[in-house]
Amino acid sequence: MTFLRFAARRVAEMAATLLAASFVVFGAMYVAPGSPASFLLSGRSASPEAVAAINSRYHLDDPFAVRYFDWLGGVLRGDFGRSITYRTDVSRLLADRLPTTLLLIVMALAVVVVGGLLLGRIAAVRGGRTDSAILVVTTFAVGTPSFVAAVLLQGLFAVRLGWFPSGGAGDGLGDMIWHLTLPSIALALYLIGMLARVTRSAMVEALDSEHVTVARSRGVPERLVIRRHVFRNALGTVLTTGGLVVSTLLVCTILVETAFSVGGIGQLLELSTTTKDFPTVQAIALIVVALFMAVNLLVDLLLPLVDPRITLGTRESAA
Description:
mainly alpha; MetI-like fold; 2 domains; 13 helices; 76% helix
């Protein structure tokens, strides 16, 4: 199978999966208890005419199929509807908040990649007490939920030491990076431990392989053995966790953004779910699903380039 045919097939599969996900995302909110009308009325009693007017304005009384296809058609045009809570277009809300969340995720991902790969590589290569110490540290990291890390970092570095802001997203790129430093570390802590363990295990397995023994017997310098034969062969296994890493970042950003009052789409999702803001929740959920599938597509396309033993269309190493 050629690369272009494989890429085209994976894109088609992604589109079909995204279509099915859109149906689930749209329908899930209507299964949940409560309704937008009850939120807009704020618990006040209202006449049937008033409730009917609200339902008519937001098309809540239309048949489910009609609402779904109207919503799907709008999504394809870039129109996610109008927010019930904020009384503005959902697209505008996302445009205002999405850059903050994306910057937070990129910063956290950079911390995860650098910290996880570095710790995993050091543990595998040096072994002994260094390996044991890193295993202890990564065990602590994996056992610390993001919201707990957020509270601890905020209390120590923002409140007690005053090194970083305790909340907000800042203005301008430099100020935003400063404001998002603590949230990105809180978001990345668990994943650093996970990636370090995956990297260590993959490199330890690669160190025991036959081709590494042959390379050493031929007098290849150890640093080249580690870089060309050990780390590169382990990179395929590490890369397969990319989808899990990004999906965890997307989910945990809700907790971290709320703790630090960042004002991104994670915090917006939490508030919109509470107020039954259907259009906003559906838009954010669909974007998260699309990002997750895009990352998995990218991983599938990169794996054969990173590890020649992996063929197009499979993530399994050749025997």
